[in-house]
Amino acid sequence: MDNVYNYLLNEANINYGDSVVLGVSGGPDSMALLHMMLRIKKALDIQIICGHVNHNSGREGQDADEKLVKDFCNKNNIVFESMVIKEYGDDNFHNEARSIRYNYFHSLIKKYHAKILFTAHHGDDLVETILMRLVRGSTLRGYSGFSKEIICDDYKIIRPFIKLTKKEIIEYNKQNKIKYAIDSSNSKDVYTRNRFRKYIVPHLKEEEKNVHLKFLKFSETLLEYNNYIDKQVQKVMKKVCPDNVINIELFIKEEKVIQMKIIYFLLEYIYQDDLMLITDHHAKLIYDLIYSSKANSFIYLPNNVKFIKNYNNLLFEIGEIDKQDYEIEIISYLNLPNGKNIEVIDKSKDTSNNTTYLLSSDIVLPLRVRNRQIGDKMVVKGMLGKKKISDIFIDSKIPMQDRNLWPIVVDSENKVVWVPGLKKSKFDKQNTNSYDIILKYY
C-alpha cells in the first residue's frame, strides 16, 4: 500500500488544491481507496468528491451501503454525492448499470471541475476481466482488460490499485479498521465473473502467487501492439473507410490483420462503453458480410446496430429497425428488432415459454433468430404433428403489427426450435433432463 500512496502523491499528477472524483460503492476496495485518498487530502489539501450509485437492483442492503459511505464522508469532510438508478431498459443489466454509473461520474467531473476520476479496480479484477474476454471473445484492446490510466476528453481515469490483490486490500482495511459493506450477490454462481473469481483465479494463484502482475504485463503488451497497429490502420482508414463507410474494393486488397482491425475499429467506435456486448463472432459476421456473394445484404448486431452491404460499400445504422426481414446468429446476447432480448444463460429454473432448454446434439448449430417466413411450422411440445407459426400467433392473440418482427429461433437446417414467449418445440427439455443450451427471452 505504501507504493500506492507514493504513486498518488508523486506520480498521479495531483496538485495542491485539485478536485478529484472517487467512485465508491461501499465495498472493501472502494472504501480502502477512499481512506487512502483521505491521506492524500491531508497532504495536498485536495477536494474529494465521493460519487455513490445505488443500483436499485433488488439486493438487500443497498440503502445501508449508501449510509455507510455517506457517514464516512460526513465524518471526514468529504463531499458526498449519490444517485439512484430508477429504471433500466432492455439492455444487458451489468453493461447498462456500468454505462449509467460512468455517465454519472462524468457529470460530477464537470460539476466540480475535477481533473481525475479514481476507481478501485484491482489486480484480481484485471485477471477476471481478461479471462472472461478470452473465453467470450473480444477485440485486441478488449483482451487487454483495462488500463491503469485512461485519458478522456478533459480528465483522466486512474485505477491506483491495479497492482494489488483483493487480499492485500482486505488486509489494509483490517489494519486501519475501515468499515465496508459486503455485496451478497458476489457469492452467487449465476454471475460469470463470480465463477471465475471463486473457481479459476485461485488455481492460477496456486501456480503463481503474483499472477495478477503477469496479467498486467500481458495487458500492457497487448495495448502496446494495439496502439502500434492502430497507427497503421489510421493511415489506411482514410482511404478505405472514409466517414466510417468501408470501400469494399479497397478493403479486400489489405492484409487480413488490417481488415479485421478496421472492423474492430468500427465496432469500438460504435459500442464504446458497451464493448462487452461484442465478441469476435460479431466481427466475423461483418467480415463474412463483406465477402458475401450478395450485392445487397445486411446483418443486425446488439443495440439496434445494422450493418448494410450495398454493392461496393459497407455502412452501418444505429437506431430504430424497420420491418425488413432479419436473421441474426445467436452467440451470447442479442438485442432484437422488436426491442426484446435473447440471451444464452448458464442456469435457470424458469419453466415458462420465455426460457427454452435445448440439447445441441438434437439440432444443427449455430442457432439463428429471424422473423417469420411463409410456410413456417413447428412441432409444438406435447403435440403431434406440425403447427403453423401463423396459427400460433392467432391462438396467442398477437397483433398483426407485431407478427412480422416476432423472433423465430431456428437451427442451421431452418428447423423452428422455439417461438420465444409463445411456444416451445419438441426440442425443449425438461429442467431435470439433459441439456447444454439455455435461451432466455425478455
Which secondary structure elements does this structure contain, and how are they paired or packed?
Elements: H1 2-10, E1 19-23, H2 28-44, E2 47-54, H3 62-75, E3 79-84, H4 93-111, E4 116-118, H5 123-136, H6 140-143, E5 149-151, E6 156-158, H7 166-175, H8 192-207, H9 211-240, E7 246-247, H10 248-251, H11 256-271, H12 280-290, E8 296-301, E9 305-310, E10 313-318, E11 327-329, E12 333-335, E13 341-345, E14 355-358, E15 368-370, E16 377-378, E17 387-388, H13 389-395, H14 400-403, E18 408-410, E19 416-419, E20 423-424, E21 437-441
Parallel strand pairs: 1-2, 1-4, 2-3, 4-6
Antiparallel strand pairs: 5-6, 7-10, 8-9, 9-10, 11-15, 12-13, 13-21, 14-21, 15-18, 16-17, 18-19, 19-20
Helix pairs in contact: 2-7, 5-8, 5-9, 9-11, 11-12
Count every helix, treating DSSP H or I runs of 4 or more residues as helices: 14
Helix percent band: 25-40%
Poorly predicted regions: none
What's the number of extended β-strand segments? 21
Largest sheet: 6 strands, mixed
- CATH superfamily membership of the largest domain, which one? HUPs
The strands making up the biggest β-sheet line up spatially as 3-2-1-4-6-5
How many structural domains in the coordinates? 3
Nearest-integer average pLDDT: 88
Structural class: alpha+beta
- The appropriate CATH architecture of the largest domain is 3-Layer(aba) Sandwich
CATH topology of the largest domain: Rossmann fold
Distance between the termini: 45 Å
What is the CATH domain class of the largest domain? Answer: Alpha Beta
Strand content: 15-25%
Computed over alpha carbons, the radius of gyration is 25 Å
Give the overall shape, derived from the CA principal axes.
globular
